Fold this protein.
Amino acid sequence: MSKDTKAFMVGSGIGSLAAAAFMIRDGEMSGRNITIFEALPVLGGSLDGGGNPETGYTMRGGRMLTTDNYECTWELFKSIPSLEHPGKSVFDETVEFNEVMKSCSKARLIDRNRSIVDVKSMGFNMADRTQLLELAAASEDKLGSTRITDWLSPEFFTTNFWYMWSTTFAFQPWHSAVEFNRYLHRFMKEFSRIETLAGVKRTVYNQYDSLVKPLVSWLTAQQVQFRKACTVTDIVLGTGDKILVTELKTTESGKTGSIPIRPEDLVLFQNGTMTDASTFGSMTKAPEKLTKADTNGWLLWEKLATGRPEFGNPAVFNSSIPESNWPSFTVTLKDTVFFDKMEAMSGNKAGTGGLVTFKDSNWYMSVVLAYQPHYAGQPDGVQVFWGYALHGDRVGNFVPKPMADCNGEEILRELCGHLNFDQEITFANANCIPCRMPYITSQFMPRSKSDRPLPVPKNSKNLAFVSQYVEIPDDVVFTVEYSVRVAQMVVYQLLGLDHEIPAISRHDETVKVKFDAVLKAFA
């Protein structure tokens, strides 16, 4: 790398932000030489958190974190200063917060009778245990592009384990057996405590306020250039055997532009996005139904991959919205009625219980009450909670329509039905904002290894991919860790840094973790 090397990031998700930080911290690049393009007016990609107490807070989703598995993430955030605690890092404040707010769910599952389900047992029979072991022991070559349903019988999907594991990690029965297998190994330590979510760690606020904002603040201080509301429409490659980006074409404020890329410059591309075509509704309106055709969010990857199999196969991930979508909702409250009722029913104070799943819900609905405030600057007297449904295309138990077609008031009506709460009393001062995400679990779609590009494709001189749609052996997508790890890998490889990347913790190979998992499976 020359002192004059410039880096261009296409997309401002956590992967690009992390890559910029690694370039500056470990590669000693000047922040002035790094430019991050973002098509939206806000940075952070899928780690979002917006709104206000008057019009309602919004959050498409939240990511599960652990201190046992997120090796690269926490290594990065040990060097990012907290915005609220001078002298402490984001890692420090997160650890301290979780030492006080410990997860121990007492109401992980609720049944059709509004009763808390006893989840000490995973509910397996011998056939379930045998099938799960066969899937977990299978090689990825053997699993290939099969689905979870190819390995597990219909009865398996009615076990307590499936209800808890699937809603914790957002798996559907038709998702990739390879990805399910990876989760079983990567999070085997969570297998024995899945009913309490004791291993789950939370950020102080939502992940936009707790992770994105301090990282962006640090990058801004390093003079990184952010070009928001600017779309990169094409990544032009030169001719020859080597993959070499020569130009970026952009659209900004209705004007087209061109940025020449020299051989010594670097381009990092966030190929694909799980929150593409997301839309919000309101208390009186369901979210609009958009697709990739309305946003062009996948267009650049599709253009690059045409005729270049080494760049992956985006069609595998973005061609079946019915298999990759689910809706979520964020509720802003101006009183404590709902939180009081939920805390009394569940036995958990907000911030200690994690997901509460209504296992017999047609929508397969879950809600989570985070510690308050959940947004930086959230005023006293305002509370916010979030929920989602894995089966948003099915007709509700109490509202005769799919959740995907519901407005906020109808979602609250369905929720009250499952809890036997009076809606007029419980949500008299509520604002529920639903969200539709057509590609939210697209990274879980059944695939072959070649369908995801390598972070740095073979023969690439200056182009790398940083996203949830690249191939990293053994690690799991749909996590902040995956994006941060690939960013670190790409930066160290492209800059030729002889630095060690934190290894993936192999808890699945330790005797104690295996023994605990066996005990839980036979409980």
The mean pLDDT is 96.
